Amino acid sequence: MGDLRRAWALVRKDLLTERRSKAAFNAMAFFAAMVLFIFSFALGPDAPGMSAGAGQTLLQYLWPGLLWVAIFFTGILALGRSFQVEQESGGMEALRLYPGDKKAIYAGKLAANLIILAAMEVILIPVSAVLYNIDLITKLPALLGVVALGTLGYAAVGTFYAALTANLRARDVMLPVLLFPIMVPVVVAAVKATTLVVRGDPMGELWVWLRIIALIDLVLLTVCTLTFEFAIEE
Amino acid sequence: MTDRAETAGPASGMPANGGPVVAARQVSKRYARNWALRAVDLTVARGELVSLLGPNGSGKSTLLRVLTGVTRPTYGEVELFGSALRNGDEKRKHLGVLPGMSYLYGELTAVENLRFASVMYGLTPVQEELVDALAHVGLAHAAEQQVRTFSSGMRKRLALARATLHDPELVLLDEPYGALDVEGIGWVDRFIKELREGGKTLVIATHEIGRALALCDRAVSLRGGRVVFDGSTSDYEGAIAGATESVGLEAKD
Amino acid sequence: MIGRIVVYGSAFVIAGIVVIQTIRLAKAPKEKAMRLGTIVGIVALALLAVGLVLGMFVAPTERMMGDVYRIMFIHFPSWVGTAAGYLIAFIASIMYIKTREQGYDYVAVAGAEVGVLFNVTGLITGALWGRPTWGVYWTWDPRLTTTAIMAITFAGYLVLRAFIEDPEGRARVSSLVAIVGFVNVPIVYFSVRWWRTLHQVQSSPETVDLAMVWPLRLMMLGFLLLFLFMLTRRYLLARLRGEEELDLVRMEVAGD
Question: How close B101 comes to chain A (CA, Å)?
Answer without folding.
Answer: 6
